[in-house]
Structures are given as structure tokens and as C-alpha cells.
Protein 1
Amino acid sequence: MPVNVDLVPNYADIIESLKNQPWNSVDGVTYGIPHGRGANLLLYNAEAFPTPPDSWAAMWESDSDQAGKISPYDDAIYIADAAVYLMATQPDLGITNPYALDQTQFDAAIALLGQQKPLVGEYWGDFTKQASGLASGAITQAQGWQLTANFANADSEVVGTVKPKEGATGWSDTWMVAKDTEHINCAYKWLDHVASPKVQAQIAEYFGEAPANAKACDLTANPDHCDVYHATEEDFWTDVWYWTTPETACLDGREDIECVPYSQWVDAWTSLRSS
Amino acid sequence: MITVGRGRGRWRVGALLALPLTWLIVIYLLPLGLLFATAFASVDDFTGAVDWRFTLDNVTRLFTDPAYLRTTARTLGVAAAVTTLCAALAIPVSIFVARAVPARLRPLVIALLITPLWASYLVKVYAWRTMLNPGSGVVEWFLGGSPGFGWTAVVLTLTYLWLPYMILPVYVGISTIPESLLDASADLGAGAWRTFRSVVLPIIGPAVAAGSIFTFSLSLGDYITVQLVGGTSQMMGNVVYQSFSTNLPFAAAMAGLSVAIMIAYLLGMRRLGALDNL
């Protein structure tokens, strides 16, 4: 149900660019309080790459020298990562939003994922497993989280992260209120509590993400937390495409064509993984 | 004379059967029926919720998309390979324990053979993942090379996991063979191999078939081992796992297919006598 942000005092300190986005509003009406965000970065084994890579190419191109040692995300939403790479490398396809793919664009993304499959060491679902693979060198390049790199680097710096020049997908989480909630006052108390600077700082550090409340950056236990996660560098996020559910009505505003809905993303992904 | 089905007797029998029958119907048959029914339902594009409009799409897709045909074929292949390997290991081990190990040590040896069943499934699979790890695993240290993560690793790990389920029935089958039969075979001039083929194997056939029901069905339904040691490989269970939250009807169709395969397998094994001693 819609959220009346006037009843959430801490909403005022939430980073402006996270408010009223396609994934937390409908027709300009706010449906939730932004919680935190992160980018799906290129993680690499620092020993194998003394010079950090700056492109996703080794994870997509069939002549990759990292064949057998890459680790993509094991989920249908990863199709969007293929679309992000195509936006940069095949502009003729006309993709302007990786979550708004018509059938032609979608087929191109699936073809790219098919090209990637022989290069894959393991698709990842469990970040601890991915971290141990990256640390041991069994995996040299992967799509993953800053959190994963931090986890692998607990003892020594073995995994690096970079947001490649093609851009990246990412996530931006939102607190919402269920329809017909019985204790609505309690729900609003929670929304305000969880958006407060101190709580935001604690969650951001525990979970490994950039807080949505900019004031949280002064309160983190690690004073560099917000820098590591680029919490307030707006430039960093301009080419990060936050996870959004694809619908038949194209999210990029095109009205002359239908887009492929998420249920078909899942079907295509399941089929691709089974082939 | 005991007469049931009349007066108080009928009431008693009814009361006695009520609980198991309720269990069977409510907990087992009804959900299975719902599973099959769901396989023919549609799904809402936007919410992913089940929409009870009849469709054959899910079932058709299972039998027309080459990806799923291959997944089914590969899963059957894994289940068959694991079952064959388990039988090939369990028969000599059981013969050894039943004929060569002193009687007083037999319970101990059997207990040792089934100790893997006392450890957690996940611990065992993660152990295999560590051992098979290319580049750093124990298998590479000893053999100079590792099969790495893939189908070989899946078959190896599943064989290790399910072997005790084959050993138990086969051992019981072998220990029931009377010594006199083997003596008679030797008296008639049969060598060890001939005795094994013509006397032992026909007798323990039903026991192997019974053990194979465990190894085959447990392998057919597995989806965790293949995630941990299978590299990019997928089995039927992984398709169910990937689909059930967004496309429940398709997941139901795939799950229904493995139930159908298992029913066919059970019917086949019944012909071999696996279920005679239940």
C-alpha cells in the first residue's frame, strides 16, 4: 500500500536519487522507503590480475583467456547483465534499459549467455562458496558483491572489485507495508526506525551495502564504509541498473512493441541452465 | 472364531484403520494428486501466481524443449550409473562380509559399513567438494589429477552417499544362501565364477533390485550434490528448484515426470521380485 512519507521523519535524509524510482513507486505515488543499495561488481583474483581488469569482456567473449574460471550469478535476473554488456558492445540492438527487452533484444541476450556457458566454472548462488573459489584461484573473474570480496579478504587482500566500463546491474532495496496491515502505527514506527542514521549504519555494515540515509556515513564503525561502497558518490551510480521486474509493458516507455515479461526470463534461464 | 465387520468388531477395525488411512490420503495421495493437477495450470505473467486455467503447455515443453529432454536423459543416466556402481561394489563387499569375516565380527563390520549414514548429508557432500577441488584437493595430491566438478564427480559422490542402502539388502540376501547350495555347486564341478553366476546371482537378484530402488530414486531426486560438485551441470531436481517460486505449474510438471519415472521403475523392479519380501 502507498506510504505517507510525511509520517516518516527520517525520510528527509534519504538520498534523493533513490526516491520515487520505478521499483518503489507507481505513477508518482511512493510505495516504500529506500533501504540500501549495491552494485553487482566484477570480482577478480588479485594474483591473476596485478592490473585490475576494466571490462566484462573476459566473462562474455568466446575467445576469453579465463575460460573455465568465471563465475556468473545463478539467477534469471542475470539476463540483465548480458543486456548491460550488449548496450555497450552492440548499440545497434537499441537497448536503453536492460530490464526492458523486446523479443529481438532478449534473444540476443540469451545468445550471449549461451556463448558464455562453456566458459563458466560455476554459477554462484552462495557467496561464501564463490569467495573461497576466488581466493583459491579456481575462479579468476566473477560477477558478485563487494561483501563477497570483503569476506574473502578477511585475512589478506586476495580479491579485487571493479565496476567495469560497460556499467553493471545492482540492487536497491525498499521497505514496504503489506496491504491490510492490522497495526499500521507499528509499521510506520518501524519504517522510521529502520531509516534512522544509526540503524542504517549498523545494517549497512552488517549486510555489506551502501546505506540509503546519507547521515549514516558519519556513524559507521569503519569510517571508510561509505567510501568503499560509494554511498554518496552519485557519479558512481549513473551506469548501475538496479534490479527491476520486467513486464510486458516496456519499462523504457516504448509503446509500439511488447517486452518479454519476467516469467519468460525465468523459463529461458531454466532452459539455458539445463541445455 | 473371530468375526470382523459386524457390531463392535466393525467399529474397532474402522478405528484401527482410520489413522493410517487418513495419513495415506491426506498427507500422501491428496498432495500427489494436487501436484499432477498443478502441472496443467497456467501462471500469471505479472505476479507469478498459479492461475487455474487448463493448459498443456508445461507438459508439452518438457517433451519438446531439447534442453529438458537432455536434462531428463542425463538424470536417468546418473541414476543408472550410480545404481550400477553401487551394485558392483556392494556384491563383493557383502560376499566378503558374509563368507570371509568371522561371525562374531560381522555385526561390527556391517556397522562400520553403514556409519556414513550417521553423518549429515551436507557435511559429506562438502567433504567431496573439498577433496575433488581441482588444483588443491586431496584427490589431486594422491592421483596427480582430479576429475574436477562435473558429471564424474556427481556420480562418484552419489555412489558414496547411497552405497549403504545397497549393501544392507544385498548382505541380507547373501547371508540367507545356505552353505549346502554352494557345496553342491562345487561338488558338481562348478568353479567360483560359475557358482556366482548360476547360484548366487539368481538368489540375490531380488535383493539387488530392492537396493536399486533406493539408489535409483535417491539419485533421481537429488539436486544439492549436483549444485556442489556438478560444476554447471543440472538435474531434474534443479529445474524444479529454479521454477517453483515463479512458475509452479512447470515445476509440478517436472516433479510429476520424476514421480512417473519412479512408478515405472517400481513396477519393473516388482517383476524382478524386489517387493516380494516386504
Protein 2
Amino acid sequence: MSTNWNRKDLIGLRELSPEEINFILETADAFKQVGTREIKKVPALRGKTMVNFFVEPSTRTRTSFELAAHRLSADVINISATTSSLTKGETLKDTARNLEALHADILVLRHSSAGAPQFLAQRLKSSVINAGDGAHEHPTQGLLDIYTIRERRGKIDKLHIVIVGDILFSRVARSNIFGLTKLGARVTLVGPSTLVPREFEKLGVTVSYKIDDVLPTADVVNLLRIQHERQRKEYFPGIGEYTTLFGLTKERAKLLKPDCLVMHPGPINRGVEIDSEVADGLQSVILDQVTNGLAVRMAVLYLCGGIAT
Amino acid sequence: MSATLIRSGRVIDPANKRDEVLDLAIVDGKIAEQSAIKSQKAETVDAKGLIVAPGLIDMHVHLREPGFSHKETIESGARAAAAGGFTTIVCMPNTSPAADNPATIAWVNDRAAVTACVNVLPTGAISKNIAGEELAPIGSLGRAGVVAITDDGHCVQNHELMRRAVEYARMVGLPVLDHCQDYNLVGNGVVNEGYWSTLLGLPGWPAAGEEAIVMRNILLAELCDHRIHCQHISAAGSVHLIREARARGVKISGEVCPHHIALTDEAIQNFDTNYKMNPPLRSKEDVDAILEGITDGTLSILCSDHAPHAEFEKEVEFDQAPFGIVGLETELGIFIDQLVHKHRKIDIVRLIEMYTVEPAKLLKLDAGTLLVGAPADVTLIDPDLEWTVKIDKFESASRNSPFDGWKLKGRAVRTIVGGKTVWRL
């Protein structure tokens, strides 16, 4: 495997080539092996410092990055919005430059503003890894979803991937769309018309408002978390109606092909976008996603951290 | 007695239907008969190959004083205007305190008299503190010297309040200018709603958010039989609405900023906040509709919406950055380059008319003419001069321009206010 990675940052899947995506996945394969050993730690990033800079709350992604960094023997610092000087009015740029002045090699950024990681990447010598920016991208989630599909189905090309839920506000959806279409998948988006505008078809995907028509041909159904309270309430009438129209209920799951994978980036709202029986059922790979997330993040930290000097 | 003779220029004076090569005489700050100059020792300005135009008017600028002098001052903004070829600028009331009271207007006028090298004409707010809730003292603002009222930067959402403002403004003889934005439709939108907002996950600002208020203004202009001027038109639908209403004789008009014809929302893809303005950059279809609106006269006025911000304010996350870009020192070049040279939509005569006669008529200004006896505000323009925009050479106190490095054809080379050269290339 020859090295063909020359990016210090991972901002999104939109700017990656199919070859680069595959290279990350292959690198993750190697790190997944490491996770099965008795000693799960490798010295790849020994002496490097990774800062987990989470301006927006997160448990799953932050923990996954932290563990990934530990497995690579990097030193880790966690900073959250409430403990950072952002609350004292410091700008994002100044905070980040201070971290860089402390010789932070890798900055993992979660931020509510689309474009924040790119903004920092252009201004810092450190690696910047996007851990989710607004509704823009969540590239490591997209990569771990693709990794999980590829692991189970052996390929991505020509598979029919259905993504259901709040697409408009979802960075997970965008990273999946960019990554999957680059690798040749056919992607269908399903959800309320207010959250899945037709404009998305210009990204090379199909938009449908009838989940029952789409499920029988799906090779993968990826359900996104639906939130009513946090969003503007005018987007859809309520959780009950959402479940009726778009929830992956036990009944609806019968429409799926036997080998169709059921995915969810978490955290799950049981009984809302997915019934408990389906989430815990044989077709579900939700916990594989979490395990694979660790391997994918190790790969990303290793590749980007190796470029930045 | 001082005298200047501007020799052998192409005098384009649309107000008086003149376009010919001749000498223009200035005596004691006024345009004069050539005979008045013969006996005197006059300063001569060689304008051979240049256009001699009435001093240009930019009726939409933010000078930021009082309150935000770290972004711009009346003095620096006026210098930027002079460097852009403008002899008169009309400043917006969203200062701190807001220009919603006669005392603030008096302060601006005093400050301009002492520090500004061009004519600065203030507007007053429509509503108290630009909050859209109660009428500002519009009559007193008129007496203090405002040339129009507007809540620019904001938009009165209550149609009833807007109706009363228009009726009241009619009584005191002030035109109403409006920043057209429906707050419910726009929400927290920061970029044009469309392909790029979808791709980038940035909150969308739909064209309908402008069009809805343009339609509202058309209805109120009709109801109140008074002029409403729609500021910085960005959307195709707004152009269609204004065109149809003007054909019916409604007192409605619209203005265009250079960025809305020179750029599309494709420019936002690197999250550069110098492409963030309100209303936002829109699609190619919108740009084409605006160009047509300029061509057929639907949109009659050119302006900059000069909106200076300090670098530290713009160097932040895209959705948190303030809206707006500076424009005074690039607008004439961009409009000549795009409208006259590149797209050939209008000729230089109409362009000058849109920068002089049209705003002067709308705001009832003693400006925009080279008639004998008029104030000697004159702009010399080289329509074919090729130059490169360099933001670090700006006279403005701010640098927030997306046009750094642009190569343009056409610019002002000398700006004369009241007979005095205040800037030359």
C-alpha cells in the first residue's frame, strides 16, 4: 500500500477523491485489526498532542476521537465550549491560535457553524479534523458509515442506500451523500418535504416522500435522529405524525430485503424514527458503526497527523 | 475669485441632454459660462480623452459614525467616496445612536462640515431606534435636513406602521427607502437559499423574503400615492414586480449594487465572509434579471451599499460574521467594466445618468447637473483605464472587499467638489 495521502486536514468528504476515501478505509482496516489484539495501543502518534475542541456538545464523537488518539499513543486534551475562553468573548481564531502556540499538532473541532473547520484549517499549521460543523459535514461519521456498509456488503458501487429523516439540517446526511455517490452508490433521501427539499436532487441523489415505495429496493437504510423541540417547530407537525409517515416500525421493516442493513448514527430515539425491535434486530449494524468509528478515526488521525509537521 | 477651466473633455451631462467635447468653466465653486473666465488667470485641467461628468452620487452608504468609528468615520468614508469618483454620498441611519432624532442628524451634519471632503447627506430612520415599532419624528428629521427616511439594515415588518410612515413622509415631502426583508421568511438565513446553501449546509435566505416586501411596498406606494424606493435589489422576482408596477405608474423604484451583478452565490463555497452581505449574492438567473432590469430602466439607480467592517469582525465563523462589504472605491469601476464593456447593457451616458440625474431626482437634490450656476461638483472619468483593485490602497478605514486583485476597465481619475479638486489619481 503506497502512501497517497497529502492532506493535513479533513474538512469534508466533498473534496476527497474516491481513491482518497478508499485509502482511509484501507488504513482503517489495519487499525481495526489492532483493536482485536490484547494490547490495543500502537506508537504511531507518540509525542503528538491532539486537542478535542468541542464547541458544541457531543459524547459519542468526542469519546471516539479521544479513544482513537489514546490508541495511537497521542496526548489528548479536551476542551468544551463551557470551559473555553469563547465564553469570555475570545474569537474562535484566537482560541485556536493559542492552542497552536502550545504546540497542539491535531485539532479536532466540533462547531455549530458550517465552515468553522475550514476557516481554522486555512489559518493554522496544525491538522484540523472536522468532527461536525453545523449542517455542513461530519466526515468521520460518513466514513464510518461507508466503512460499515463496505465491511458487510464488500462494496459500495451500485448499492441502493436510503437515508431517512431530517436531511436539511443534517451534516451526517451531507457527508454520506458526498461519500457514497463518489463511490458509485445510488442514494435516495426520504423525509418530510420541509426537511428534504427537492434542491438536494442537484447533488446527484433521488428525493422521495413515500418510504414504503423505497424500502423494498434498499440495500441499506440509514435513519437519522429526528428532533422536534430543538428545531423550528414549523418544519413538521410533531413526532407522532413523523413516526406514522416515516418511522421504521416493525411493520414497515417487513418491506426490507432480508440482507438490507439498518443503520443509525445515534443517539437513537426508540419508538420515534425506529422501533426498538428493529434497532436491536438482526439487520441492525448500529453497534458495528460505533466500533468502526474508532478504527476510522484512528486512520484519519494517523494520516492527517502524519502530514502536519 | 477662483476659476478653473476643464479643457477638451467629453462633457456628458444627461440632465441637460449634453454629450459633446468642450471646455467646462468653474468660477467660485459654481459651473460658469466660459465667457466669465476669459479675463482671469484660471487653473486649467487637461481632460482630453476623459469624460467630464456631473459629480456622481452614491445614495446608499454606511459611514458608521456615530458609534462605530473603528469601522469607518465620516472623514474616511468621504475620502473613500472621493477616491471612487463620488461628490455626494447619502448615509444610512443605522449608527449608534441611530439617526432617529434631529440631534444626531445635526451631529452628523456638523461632523461632515468639519471633516468630509465630499457632500454628505444623511437619511433618518423610519422607526424609533430602527426597532420597527413606533414612528421616528419624521417631520423633525426633515427639518434637520435628512433627504429620505429608511430603516436600512432592518425592515419594518408591521405593514400598518409602514403604511403610516409612508403617508406621513408624503406630508413632509420625504421619499421612503426600504431594505426589503421579510423576517419570517428569511429567519436566520445568511446566504441565498438554493444549490449552494443546500450543499454547504448554511441557513438559506430565500429570494421570496425580498420579493414579499417589494410587493408590500408596491401596494403601499399605490395606497399612499407616494414614492417608495427599494434598496439593493437582488432577486429576479423583485425585478419583475417592480417592472410591472412601474408600467402601471406606481411610484416604486429600485437600486442595484455592484456585487449583485458581478458575483453569484457560487462565491461562498470557501466560507469567505467577504462574500457575505445582505441581501445575499444570488444565482446566475437573478443576475441576468437584474441586468435586464438595468437595461430597460426598471432599476434606475446604481449605488454601493458601502458597509465597512473591521477585519477582526469579519474574521469569524461565516454565520456569525456581520453582513456587508465596502464598495465606494470599486463600484464605478465594476459597473463600467461589467455594464458598459463586458455585457454592453447600457452606455456610459446612461450609467452616468443612473449615478446623477436619477438619485438627484428621487431625493430632490441640487446636484447631478452641469448647468451654469449649479455647484461645481464634477467627476472626471477615464472609461478605458485598466487598473487592479488593491484593498491595501483603500482610503476607507476598512478592507472588507471581495474584489481585491480584480482587473477592471474604467475609473474616476479626478473628483471636484465645489470647484475644488478633492482627489486625483
